[in-house]
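User: Structure with thiamine diphosphate, tokens only please.
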Amino acid sequence: MPTRRELANVIRVLAMDAVQQANSGHPGAPMGMADMGEVLWREFLKHNPANPRWWDRDRFVLSNGHASMLLYALLHLTGYPVSMDELRHFRQLGSRTAGHPEHDLAMGIETTTGPLGQGLANAVGFALAERVLAAQFNQPGLDIVDHHTWVFVGDGCLMEGISHEAASLAGTLGLSKLICLYDDNGISIDGKVAGWFADDTPKRFEAYGWQVIRAVDGQDGDAVAAAIRAAQADTARPSLICCRTVIGYPAPTRGGTAKAHGEPLGSEEIAAVRRLLGWTEPPFQVPAPLREAWDCQAKGRAAEARWQDLFGRYQAAHPGLAAEFLRRMQGELPASWLQQRAALYTVATGISAPQATRVSSQSALESLGDGVPELLGGSADLTGSNNTLRKGARVITPTDAAGSYLHYGVREFGMSAIMNGLALHGGLIPFGGTFLTFSDYARNAVRMAALMRQRVIHVYTHDSIGLGEDGPTHQPIEHLASLRLMPHLHLWRPADALETAVSWAQAIERQDGPSALVLTRQALPQLAGAAQAPLIARGGYVLLDCAGAPECLVIATGSEVSIAIEAVRSAQAQGRRVRLVSMPCTAVFEAQDAAWRETVLPAAVTARLSVEAGATASWWQYVGSKGRVLGIDEFGASGKAPELFKKFGLTAANVLALILELLG
Ligand SMILES: Cc1ncc(C[n+]2csc(CCOP(=O)(O)OP(=O)(O)O)c2C)c(N)n1
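Assistant:
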């Protein structure tokens, strides 16, 4: 039987050879963490390489995603469908061994990492999902949800602010099945981190309420194994295992230096490593005894079989719960969903008084009630402002995880990346609120949800100057346009209660990406009729048409639809053929067929006006060079909302004047 060190050396060689072959990549971290990887994946990780989707597998996150070759080597060696050919094509176009790991459950990659620190927050989401689902589904003697979340982090992850947000919340919630292994190699890109990262990391994590296992020799497999056992034994706190390693070990000149971080070692250094390790094989060849010792397929099959047996007993004893568990893990909505959606629209159309869309959003949540139990809500400390907490929702606490609402605290970025982990885990549809202006704090996590096409719902209230007196720091201006630039994100800016209800339904039904619901603080009149629900779902539709072919098109969103409708009515009263289009979601409208888009926005009509209380950039494509845009391309101001709308020209009178100007 090969030694632990001999097994770890397979990773070292594969990593340095693959980076060399690609002539780009990061050999140092995989070489330094090779022993940590060997111990965790061969001895502790509960996984079945033959079925990377097994519900109760442990989740593994490589937060320092630049060390991707470590993960690819581990997947390949333990028996996942990652061939040696894929390793040979590391970082090449079309290969699945991308520069940084990209979420791909077919080959066992749980989440996309690379933006440092976010993997740790994803891991907190995974661990939280496990905790919540265990509380909701496990029955005495039948713990069908019972797995760990493991995360490797480097100095970079821990320097990032998000590590504070995520670790602080994990400590508060006592997520004891979260175990983090810190690759403490003292090196980042600029050199020795002592010059810019002198925190006492163990003390920091102890202060969060974590168990910290200090000063472990990360290149001593037995020491790492002992530390992991101690981490697993703590059932009250998450654990941080501080592993001292040497980056690029055992490269004789580059090891321990920043040069090993992100450059191929070069052929001489590689030859020297081969000599030091006694490795005589050519690149991408692994001797059979090492291969056999690495293969985790039989062990994995047995582990899953034990769980299948447990689940069989669970099914026999609790058939309803078992069916519900499978439904949720498969990401299917409840059988009653269409009835629930119809009821949701009935409630929304029953609202006749003016109402802020954030309140309509809460009403939608009240209407759904417990009907979609996979919804896991929350807010970054703006619950009362975001209207995200419905009556009767049970709040998750350190001692009660069976609920459906989490107070994330003032942690927008952490919340968003944690929601990604919740969604990736399966069984939950997370939604979380903050002010639209603070979406900037969270932006890269929103981007990661879009990149990974995860069903995450962002509730962004206080959508423009309409929030009034809090002033320009709180008034988003460029955010609508800038979020619309993000591929696969559906941004909904509904104009009334029914549009809000449809936005919620669309976000819940969507299986292939995140949605942002952008909502007002101020009350808006009700505009759309019940029959319009299916049209709203198409992203853009004719809200108010004129008799005969239109000569002018007005396109508006959210709170500006009610301003525009007044102006369009006045223009129509003057005999002008003006049509009003409400466009709650440009991305969804763009996805409609050309014929539909033509019925809404006939190409022949070039007199076009857009009205939105935000940056105008996203509207030119709709109004064309002969059209006009009415928006705000300057920061807002502190004052009463009606005065602000006047100051920025967002009034029915101004819209009417622009329509008439366009019509000459
Ligand atoms: C958010 C973010 N900022 C910057 C980078 C670029 N980057 C990649 S690795 C790295 C240094 C990481 O240092 P460390 O975690 O110590 O990795 P090691 O040198 O040990 O491989 C940086 C700055 C990134 N990937 N993500």
